[in-house]
Design a protein that fits this description.
With 215 residues, the chain is an alpha/beta fold. It has 2 domains: 6-139, Response regulator (Rossmann fold, 3-Layer(aba) Sandwich); 146-209, Orthogonal Bundle (Arc Repressor Mutant, subunit A). Helices cover 54% and strands 13% of the residues. The chain contains 10 helices and 6 strands. The protein has helices spanning 14-26, 38-48, 64-74, 89-98, 110-121, 129-142, 154-164, 169-176, 180-194, 199-209, and strands at 6-10, 30-35, 52-56, 79-84, 102-105, 126-127. The protein has a 6-stranded parallel β-sheet, with helices on both faces. The longest helix has 15 residues, at 180-194. It is globular.
Length: 215
């Protein structure tokens, strides 16, 4: 049974919020609030302190990216999943820098959203394949030349490639015959060496450097 996860829904479309509320409630999540714009999302999140915020990118008063940035400053432990209609490369890059933990297109299924929520609360990064392809294209457009000023170990490369392939921490541990704690230690070292905050940033930086590839 899924543990109780408290959600805040932030979207300016009432019908979409209501639909998400019904669907996610049926799947065992607890909806603790709904926001109609980015500013309201930041204030409401500070009041109810949800585990996860489902944040629309395009909203009035304060867009989802800026709301994410402000929310992360006030509640760094809260996970944020961005929902977007289009795989806009510039917006995705800004969302990463703002601190979002997941990125999904709105045409995904409720089960995909639920899986993304479950992933981020366990420290994984949730990214739809469509957005992964878009982000990779943006990385290549911005910098097509490999960089070699930072080097990670061969084992760290193996860990990061499996992460890039979509494996979770337990799956990486199983495939490499190491403990989950060792995987987390490798990831911590990778983040430091690649100047990355999370898995998504680390993978994108490694792709830019030619260390790993996205399939």
């Amino acid at each position: 049974m899924r543990r109780a996860i408290r959600l805040l829904l932030a979207d300016d479309h009432r019908m979409l919020r209501e639909g998400l509320r019904r669907s996610l409630d049926e799947l065992g999540f607890t909806i603790v609030g709904e926001a109609r714009n980015g500013a309201e999302a930041v204030d409401l999140a500070a009041a109810v302190q949800p585990d996860v915020v489902l944040m629309d990118v395009t909203m009035p008063e304060l867009d989802g990216v800026e709301a994410t940035r402000q929310l992360k400053e006030r509640l760094p432990a809260t996970f944020i999943i961005m929902l977007t209609m289009h795989a806009d490369q510039d917006v995705l890059a800004e969302a990463i820098r703002a601190g979002a933990n997941g990125y999904l297109v709105k045409d995904c299924s409720t089960d995909e959203i639920a899986s993304a929520i479950d992933a981020v609360v366990t420290g994984e990064t949730a990214l739809s394949p469509r957005l992964a392809a878009s982000m990779l294209a943006e990385v290549r457009r911005q910098d097509g030349s490999p960089q070699s000023d930072r080097v990670i170990t061969p084992r760290e490369e193996e860990v990061l490639q499996l992460i890039a392939d979509g494996c979770s921490t337990p799956e990486v541990a199983e495939q490499l015959f190491i403990s989950q704690k060792t995987v987390k230690n490798h990831l911590a070292s990778i983040y430091q060496k690649l100047d990355a905050r999370d898995r998504t940033q680390a993978v994108l930086q490694a792709v830019r450097m030619g260390i790993v590839s996205l399939k």
